[in-house]
Design a protein that fits this description.
The chain has about 425 residues and is mainly alpha-helical. It has 15 helices and 12 strands. A hairpin with a 5-residue loop joins strand 3 and strand 4. The structure holds adenosine-5'-triphosphate (ATP) and magnesium ion. The site of magnesium ion (MG) has 2 residues, from loops. Belongs to the TCP-1 chaperonin family.
């Protein structure tokens, strides 16, 4: 054990232990370094999964279940992460998943790069708070630039108008339906078809629990068991046609947390919306995740139709813009902004690396071409299509996703930089 001898104010000797592994508490710059290391480790795992040529991960759960996936949020969720800061990275990916649904790998790669760059700045003696402030400024520049290079995507105004009208109509319809059901005195609805989350929310508000997508045979069984009648139209609902059951409860069991609804003796099955077939369970699961990501992108486009082009092109363009803005800053934050600009390059670098290109060469080439050709759509030609113009390749990403990635990654980086002490609940003060 290495350590050094010191004396307290009464002259009594004590030993300061330098042995890092045994220390549960880290403070100051040591804490920052250790946090950055943990965050970098998590980002390092996801780096190779980024992009169309990204590799999959095979994850084995404690009871032997296997997941093969490329989805950042899923990889992190299934990894048994212990380190507190690494857990924050897992949550970061989850936030992107909740907010946007896609871009969960990219956001972690970006956050990892931001922290890696921050480490260098700390080594040069720049205070963590100044780094955080510089990053904040850079993020503002990057987001403004993103909007500048974004383009409208053809979700026609008519589509939007229709969408809005449809929603209003839907809402009105739901209100009447819920009222009709309540008027009969029913306190549970079982429906053979689906109703969307909005209706579900309304039902919940009106305190009318409802079960959707109950299969044909099951709904018949429930009808038989409860003595209820299946009615095809809301207008036909009357008090006499209601069934009764003692209790209805939801059970969740097993390690897979599968849920089941129990209505006295008969139970019903789960909701299915898209039918996916595959050679084995793992492929189907990954298919589901891909469809979920794709559906999220569509939803985001309906909400905000602005897009940027992918393949790392927006990151390169923003990196150039931030580097340019940094030159005009006279304070210390200039360095943090430069680092931010470098961190943005982590995405195109990873894409190039994962596609088997020499990363630095490819990036340098595209960077210079973006400037020379004044074209922010130039990115990594991952699929070897012969052009770097992502517009020609039709590789698009939503503006909202890119912006969320930058904002969330910076938010987390700033948070980690502001932590200089970690204590477990068992640690003594
Ligand atoms: N055909 C393509 N050519 C070049 N780049 C592409 C292509 N397809 C996707 N990309 C880029 O790959 C990146 C997205 O990779 P990926 O979908 O693996 O990760 P993610 O979206 O960050 O996370 P996840 O999909 O796991 O939630 C984006 O930068 C996107 O622009
Ligand atoms: Mg994706």
């Amino acid at each position: 054990m290495s350590g050094s001898l010191a004396f307290d104010e009464y002259g009594r000797p004590f030993i300061i232990i330098r042995d890092q592994e045994r220390k549960s508490r880290l403070t100051g710059i040591e804490a920052h370094k250790s946090h950055i290391m943990a965050a970098k480790a998590v980002a390092g795992v996801l780096r190779t999964s980024l992009g169309p040529k990204g590799l999959d991960k095979l994850l084995v759960s404690p009871d032997g279940d296997i997941t093969v996936t490329n989805d950042g949020a899923t990889i992190l969720k299934q990894m048994d992460v212990q380190h507190q800061i690494a857990k924050l990275m897992v949550q970061l990916s989850q936030s992107q998943d909740d907010e946007i649904g896609d871009g969960t790998t990219g956001v972690v790669v970006l956050a990892g790069a931001l922290l890696e760059q921050a480490e260098k700045l700390l080594d040069r003696g720049i205070h963590p708070i100044r780094v955080a402030d510089g990053y904040e400024m850079a993020a503002t520049v990057a987001c403004e630039h993103l909007e500048k290079i974004s383009e409208g995507f053809k979700v026609t105004p008519k589509d939007r108008e229709d969408y809005r009208k449809l929603r209003e109509y839907e809402l009105q319809k739901f209100e009447t339906m819920v009222k009709q059901v309540k008027d009969t005195g029913a306190n549970l609805v079982i429906c053979q078809w689906g109703f969307d989350d909005e209706a579900n929310h309304l039902l919940l508000q009106r305190k009318l629990p409802a079960v959707r997508w109950v299969g044909g045979p099951e709904i018949e069984l429930i009808a038989i068991a409860t003595g209820g009648r299946i009615v095809p139209r809301f207008e036909e609902l009357t008090k006499e046609k209601l069934g009764t059951a003692g209790t209805v409860r939801e059970l969740s069991f097993g390690t897979t947390k599968e849920k089941m609804l129990v209505i006295e003796d008969c139970n019903n099955s789960r909701a299915v919306t898209i039918f996916i077939r595959g050679g084995n369970k793992m492929i189907v699961e990954e298919g589901k995740r891909s469809i979920h990501d794709a559906l999220c992108v569509i939803r985001n486009l309906v909400k905000d139709s602005r897009i940027v082009y992918g393949g790392g092109a927006p990151e390169i363009s923003c990196s150039l813009a931030v580097a340019e803005a940094a030159k005009k800053i006279s304070t210390l934050e200039q360095y943090a902004m430069k680092s931010f600009s470098e961190a943005l390059e982590s995405v195109p670098l990873a894409l190039a690396e994962n596609s088997g290109f020499a990363p630095i060469h490819t990036l340098a080439d595209i960077k210079s071409r973006q400037i020379k050709e004044k074209n922010p759509r130039l990115g990594i030609d991952c699929l070897n299509k012969g052009t770097n113009d992502m517009k020609t390749q039709s590789v698009i990403e939503t503006l909202s996703s890119k912006r969320a990635q930058i904002l969330l990654a910076v938010q987390l980086t700033k948070m980690i930089l502001k932590i200089d002490d970690v204590r477990g609940s068992a640690d003594q003060v």
